[in-house]
Amino acid sequence: MVFEHFALNVTDIKKRVDWFVTHLGLKVVVAKEKAPFMTFLADSTGRVIIELYQKEEEPLNNFKERQPSTFHLAFVSDHAEADKQRLMAEGATFVEEVIREGGTHLVMLRDPWGMPLQLCERPIKF
Cis peptide before 36, with omega less than 30 degrees from 0? Predict the structure, then answer.
């Protein structure tokens, strides 16, 4: 088996997709113009990583109520501090930061809708 994507039912899908594309460097691969607006996003390698959709009749994720340790999207960052500052200037909020012995720098933020995002600057990338 090969991982294909992870799907989330979210609010404000069009604004959120725009924010992810503009500020996280994701690319829209498929986007449906009618509800539930299924949108598949790929990372800079071209690999689809996430599907966002908005089904009002189903429970919507309220990420503000969830601890980042229970759910977060993690992104490779070559400059975690600079990316943290850049994303906060665009509406993300700071949660916590960890610098581990050996040089790993982890930054936890929340996007403007509360979804936890982690920036991972590692000396040896996974």
Answer: yes
Q: Compute the half-sphere exposure of residue 113: CA atoms within 13 Å on the CB side of its CA.
A: 18
- Contact between 99 and 74 (Cβ < 8 Å): no
Mention every residue, 6+ apart, whose C-beta is less than 8 A from residue 25: 43, 44
Instruction: Specify whether the CB–CB gap between 38 and 32 falls below 8 A.
Output: yes
**Residue 75 pLDDT class (50, 70, 90 cuts):** very high
Q: Please enumerate, as own/partner, the contacts of 39-46 that have beta carbons within 8 Å and a separation of 24 or more.
A: 39/13, 40/5, 41/17, 43/75
pTM of the model: 0.93
| CB 41, CB 26: distance < 8 Å | yes
The burial of 104, by beta-carbon neighbours within 10 Å (0-12 exposed, 13-18 middle, 19 or more buried), is given as middle
Cα 70 to Cα 3, 11, 63: the distances in Å are: 20, 19, 10
Q: Which two tokens stand for residue 87?
A: 């994303």
Give CA angle at 41 (69, 87), nearest 5°.
55
